[in-house]
Amino acid sequence: MKSLRHRLPSLTSLMVFEAAARTLNFTRAAEELHVSQAAVSKQIRYLEDYFGFELFQRHGRRVTLSSRGQQLLQKVSASFNYLADAVDELGTHTSVASVTLAANTAMSHYWLSAAINAFRDRYPAFGVNIRVITSDHTPDHFADDVNLAVVYDPSRRIGWSGELLFEEELYPVASPDYIRSHPLCGEGPEALLSHRLLDYERVEPNWINWPVWFESLGVNARGLKASGHGNNYTVLVDAAARGHGVTLGTRYLLDLELQSGRLARLSDFSVRSGRGYYLMLNNEQPYREEVGLIHQWLREFRVDAAEGG
């Protein structure tokens, strides 16, 4: 792939074009950019030579945009506004303190978001921005700028300390309507093999899907073909809640989904993987009171969720 420098004309010429196209007046554009009118005309000619077609139609001293000029203006204007927003956002972050948290998609969506919302309700005057990085690639959770991470089976990490939030326990869940119309027939976990099983792609090898779950209960699930797949856990949980089948639910992670009635357990069969979710603290970052407050809150929210489960 070519670099942007080789794919784009001069950015100066694009900025001059945006001002001229927006004002439809080369003189006004020159005043806005603090350059001469001749400099504006030169940059426009450069762009028209670059593209090989006219961007403006000249009518004496008046100019209008050609159809291709209008097309270019829409793209250039949107791009510059996007860049300006990014610069403004960075400028805001430099003046307002922030705490950065990281977690995978499922944890961010089902547990961490609830914990953060509860924290904001408890501390409405908390003046620090809470930034969340969501990624299913574990190394992303340990970036230098991350203060706290809620991580699945993190292993030992230099410069980080952690504690177990909750152990992983997995059991089949589905919508109440699905369970009423598809009751479990049979006494063993193999009875689930006749159901519409929803599974996800194992992005990392330590994730547990249906074949691993069945094998942990002594059921031969080799060659098992799921009825539906999703590229992440939240997609599967939503599909199950809509009555499309059965997926594996994680205790504590889906407590609120079960309490709300969107999902229910299909059976009492469950698997404890020996793994779990850990709350990790970046010890390479200087200690800050706001980080300590959120850290303590997440530890307490863990206890609340466990007691409610």
TrEMBL record:
PANTHER family with a match to the protein in the record: GLYCINE CLEAVAGE SYSTEM TRANSCRIPTIONAL ACTIVATOR, HTH-TYPE TRANSCRIPTIONAL REGULATOR
Q: What is this protein called?
A: LysR substrate-binding domain-containing protein
Q: What is the residue range of the signal peptide feature?
A: none
Q: Is Transcription one of the keywords UniProt gives this record? A: yes
**SUPFAM superfamilies, per database record:** Periplasmic binding protein-like II (SSF53850), Winged helix' DNA-binding domain (SSF46785)
- Domain of life of the organism in this record? Bacteria
Q: Which keywords does this Swiss-Prot/TrEMBL entry list?
A: DNA-binding, Transcription, Transcription regulation
Q: Where is the HTH lysR-type domain?
A: 9-66
The record ties this protein, via InterPro entries, to:
LysR-type_TF_proteobact-type, LysR_HTH_N, LysR_subst-bd, WH-like_DNA-bd_sf, WH_DNA-bd_sf
Organism for this UniProt entry: Marinobacterium aestuariivivens
One Pfam entry for this protein is: LysR_substrate
What taxonomic classification does the UniProt entry list for its organism? Bacteria, Pseudomonadati, Pseudomonadota, Gammaproteobacteria, Oceanospirillales
The record's similarity note reads: Belongs to the LysR transcriptional regulatory family.
